Amino acid sequence: MDNKINNQLNQWSGKIKETAGKMVHSDQMELKGKLQVMGSEISEKGEEIKEKAANKANGIIDKIKNERGR
Prior knowledge:
The protein has one domain. The chain has two helices and no strands. The protein has helices at 2-23, 27-68.
């Protein structure tokens, strides 16, 4: 949960930097904002993959336990 909140905050912060960079015509600030947003999105996808893998592994473990109990 904390990672999701941190990722969301980083995305918002990055979007603010990107917009501010556009407003003051600073390519460097705009790029930093875009990179921050991209990094947060990648991290978010990584968290989703990790969660799916954990669910799948737990399902397999439960299936093995159930088969042993028969």
